[in-house]
Design brief:
With 332 residues, this protein is α/β, with parallel strands linked by helices. Helices cover 36% and strands 14% of the residues. The two termini are 33 Å apart. The structure holds aspartic acid (ASP) and phosphoric acid mono(formamide)ester (CP).
Length: 332
């Protein structure tokens, strides 16, 4: 047995570097909190790994890249895709998962704070995916954690892994991102997916159109930030003026759970519905995306249209999340 070394005499440990993994791997031990941490080179790297993951899943289904690693899936808000795609990603890589999908059955219900919950889970897991209703919660968790924190959505703030899978979808479906016109429609005020995606797209030469009811407009601070980076952005209240030029139509749900006054929600919930008639006015080579869940914004009749990319988008998410787990755990 090794001689006992008192804690204050033990060698310094980088807060995010568990022992025994390849320290040279890009993103090793890093948190994924905001899309602002990525540049175009990083995106190429992530997407390259995601393509390898897809090839491996198609070839062998499950393999042992993360054998012995454990993911804690800590969800304070409902989720189907983010929680189960991270779960599936970890299992397909040979690792395992502690699922806390309903915090009311955890000690959070006894009043345990987020930092203490994080400190607890990192004793048992190598990486934590956190979804939480407060903006900044993932950054707060990362301050306390020694293990990587992946932001699975922090209130109306960001949803960075969604934006990565959205961008991957655009690349795989349309080839190039530069030169595209991306039209975001629906709840641009509370929708964290559009906040992250608009920021990520600002790394490219794109035109962004924002279509929303007046009370759900894209936050002005975000528009100003992108303006300063020279991104072309225009706001509209209807879709018609930009339909013909749109390459990516990114539809979002009105985020009912974020409204203080449900009467306001009732007024805007049905503001836009994409139907086969809408698609008659678009290019043949364009895609319709949606982070999902949908609650009426896209009519079921267009699911069979090849331009409807929202189900394929979910599958791209699996490969991107496999890539991210492998990267932060030093195996890619
Ligand atoms: N699932 C996405 C999110 O959690 C979009 C949505 O819920 O409307 O942000
Ligand atoms: N797109 C997305 O985040 O879906 P879930 O809310 O189901 O995780």
């Amino acid at each position: 047995m090794a001689a006992f070394v008192p804690p204050n005499e033990r060698p310094e440990r980088s807060p995010h570097l568990p022992f025994g993994d390849c320290r040279e791997a890009p993103f090793y031990g890093k948190d994924i909190i905001s899309v602002s941490q990525f540049n175009r080179e990083d995106l190429e790297y992530i997407f390259g790994v995601a393509r390898e993951m897809r090839a491996m899943v198609e070839r062998v289904g499950t393999f042992d890249l993360l054998k012995g690693k454990i993911l804690a899936n800590l969800f304070y808000e409902p989720s189907t895709r983010t929680s189960s795609s991270f779960f599936s990603a970890m299992e397909r890589l040979g690792g395992s998962v502690i699922p806390i999908n309903e915090v009311t059955y955890s000690s959070v219900a006894k009043g345990e704070s987020l930092p203490d919950t994080i400190r607890t889970l990192e004793c048992y897991a190598d990486v934590i995916v956190l979804r939480h209703p407060e903006v900044g919660s993932a950054a707060l968790a990362a301050e306390y954690a020694r293990k990587p924190i992946i932001n699975g959505g922090d209130g109306i703030g960001e949803h960075p892994t969604q934006a990565l899978l959205d961008l991957f979808t655009i690349k795989e479906e349309l080839g190039e991102v530069d030169g595209l016109t991306v039209t975001m429609l629906g709840d641009l005020k509370y929708g964290r997916t559009v906040h992250s995606l608009a920021r990520l797209l600002s790394l490219f030469t794109v035109r962004l159109n924002y279509i929303s009811p007046d009370i759900l407009r894209m936050p002005p601070e975000l528009i100003e930030k992108l303006e300063a980076k020279g991104v072309s952005q225009k706001e509209y209240s209807t879709l018609e003026p930009v339909l013909a030029e749109t390459d990516v139509l990114y539809v979002t749900r009105v985020q009912k759970e974020r409204f203080e006054n449900l009467d306001e929600y009732e007024k805007v919930k049905g503001a836009y519905v994409i139907t086969p008639e809408t698609l008659e006015q678009t290019k043949d080579k364009m895609i319709v995306m949606h982070p999902l869940p949908r609650v009426g914004e896209i009519s079921l009749e267009i699911d069979a249209d090849p331009r409807a990319a929202y189900f394929r988008q979910m599958e791209y998410g699996l490969y991107v999340r496999m890539a991210l787990l492998a990267m932060v755990l030093g195996k890619a």
